[in-house]
Design goal:
This protein has two domains: 41 residues, no CATH class; 213 residues. Helix 13 links the parallel strand 7 and strand 8. The strands form three sheets. A four-stranded parallel beta sheet has the order 3-8-7-4. It has a two-stranded antiparallel ribbon with strand order 1-2. By secondary structure, it is α/β, with parallel strands linked by helices. It is 46% helix and 14% strand. The structure holds zinc ion (2 copies). The site of one zinc ion has 7 residues, from helix 5.
Length: 298
Amino acid sequence: MSFRPTKWLQRLQSAFTSTAQLLSPQAAACLLCGKLHNEARSAEGLNRTKLTLRLQQSVCGVCLSTIPWLTRIVCHRCGRGIHCDDCLRNPQRSFILNRSAVHYNPAMRSLLAQYKYRGNEELATLLADMLVPAFERMTAELALRITPPGPAQHKQSHKNIALYWDAITFVPISPERALDRGFNQAEQLANDLAQRYRIPLMQLLVRERHTEKQSFKTRSERMRDTRHLFNINEVEFDKLRNIKLTHRNKEESTDRVLRVLIIDDIYTTGSTGEACSQALSLYSGQPLEIYILTWARS
Ligand SMILES: [Zn+2]
Ligand SMILES: [Zn+2]
């Protein structure tokens, strides 16, 4: 049997190529522009915001760089990036603060519309991933406000982040809207975040009546509309109290306050968030801190 160096070299080359193909990142279509992109390139230059790997894999570098992240906060109550008359006019709020992931610019409006009204549920995970940096910054702000729960408070691991929250809930939609749309966008975002950090997801609120789309309304119409719009899901709220008691007994939490995060897609005047917070505070009967996290701030 003769040794044939060419054939041997060919075999070696083909083995090498297939290994290289396996190891190189797969090109995927960007969820926003549809173009093929490479995951490694999309992460370049974006180290400042802590983006999830899933977000980097699903959106190209160009699209990622055009996302209007809301990182510079001017109004510390509602998380707005510009001066805010609403909070000056209404300094009394039932929630501690709102933070949002992005500015609601035309591109974000059309992205949310694709997801909400055209039923593009694939975008649900994308929007949830976009909430992550805002949620982690918000928890860091909260950590500075209160006594830290454990010695490892400086490390922002998922477990440490979860220690600050007793439950994640969401703004409920009416049964009519649920039937029409087939899903609640706020619930999907809340569910994704709750699973990621292993924080209990609870439907603490129910919507008392159906209202027309808020986007076409003036500020005073919204305020009138949302008055007594939400009620408490008492069974879930009692579960929340029990979870807190169990944790307290196990000394997992030295924190006496019940702390709840409400998720919604948009914060406009804050009337929806206020109505939800009011309902929760009125029912609670014990120290309750409510924070709101919204995908966009309009
Ligand atoms: Zn793109
Ligand atoms: Zn404000």
